Amino acid sequence: MPAFHDDTPPPGLPRADSLPEGILFGKYELGKLLGCGAFAKVYHGRNVLTGQSVAIKAVNKLKVLKGGFTAHVKREIAIMRRLRHPNVVRLFEVLATKTKIYFVMEYAKGGELFGKVSKGRFSENLSRRYFQQLITAVGYCHSRGIFHRDLKPENLLLDDNFDLRVSDFGLSALADQIRPDGLLHTLCGTPAYVAPEILAKKGYDGAKIDVWSCGIILYVLTAGYLPFNDSNLMSMYRKIYRGDFRCPKWTSPDLQRFLSRLLDTNPETRITVDEIQRDPWFVKGFQEEKFQFQELIEDPASEVYGDVNNSKYLNAFDLISFSPGFDLTGLIKETEFSSCVERFLSAESPEKIITRVEEVTKSENAAVEKNGWGVKVEGLDGGFVVVIDIFRLTEELVVVEIKNRVRETDQDGDQRWKDVLRPQLECLIYRSD
Known about the structure:
Elements: E1 23-24, E2 28-36, E3 40-47, E4 53-60, H1 61-66, H2 70-82, E5 91-96, E6 100-106, E7 111-112, H3 113-117, H4 124-143, E8 146-147, E9 156-158, E10 164-166, E11 173-174, H5 196-200, H6 206-223, H7 233-242, H8 253-262, H9 273-276, H10 280-283, H11 316-322, E12 337-346, H12 350-362, E13 367-371, E14 374-378, E15 384-392, E16 398-407, H13 411-421
Antiparallel strand pairs: 1-2, 2-3, 3-4, 4-6, 5-6, 7-9, 8-11, 9-10, 12-16, 13-14, 14-15, 15-16
Helix pairs in contact: 4-6
């Protein structure tokens, strides 16, 4: 049965271990180092086929696994896959070798916004322009259940036209991380930009802490310095908790009023993104860019795939997660069931595969539940549950993933699946010869 390995490049490209030094998968030329973090480095890169500049974030897989950041990396990619906005850095694709995971992203030639404002404060009009772009991007993320949680000038980049691009979603949260109390609880963020409710450690609303950080950013752009700053961290936290700041004398009354609403220490009365977009100071000269979110089927060797016509398309990270060296399924522990996961290639259509599964399981009087390109088969006695998902790999091939969950106390169910049902699916497996 064909197997996936994380050092195998997309179809049509040579293996990573046969490439000249500095070339990834025969496609990207690595350039100068742009920055580095705890387990990743960011390089300038160039697509050798098109000449396009890209940013390549190289993540050390060993550090990710040892540090327990597997879910963290998976979430960052899942988040970036959802985002297509003119003011958000775009993820083009994800590649991997045995030791590294590579995020290939849009290159922001203008660098960090922090580098610009560190040379001197911006005019109120220029600050407003960047703040409008920031809020447009943040509102877009929130509408898709994504909360950044680490907004600061260092994570805001500028493109060739000096338009803003939000980047670094490594600390971002998804709506499904919200606890039953309706709040997030993970402590995160950069001290000078952290909202007071995070310091209280009682849970927080992801959208409201992003608004607070946006308020800090706007203050920095117009003032040239932080609203809450102290060499002693605890003293700075006390200022944040009390909302102890003053606007510079050169800020207009409208901006001072606006900042007081953004930096309201009470999250219940703090201005919302919708209210921001109706505020008189904000709307001055505001022209929201109109765009359409389009997910296209691209060359299998390049782009991250999207869902097209309700079918499931694999992206490079899906293939990485299929490999034994970066298996993400082990993160979920089920005490009642043991699980066995199998994957194979098939040249049959998803519809034909599902029909075959129905035919095979009919003899066992099992309950079958279909859901798009997936099917769930459950033994009538509940002894086993088989979940089959089908993903489009190319126009000709699909990946069939079979998850066989067997109750620990019912090994007979496991044998019925392995000995009676599973062999009848062998005809679906793609044979290259």
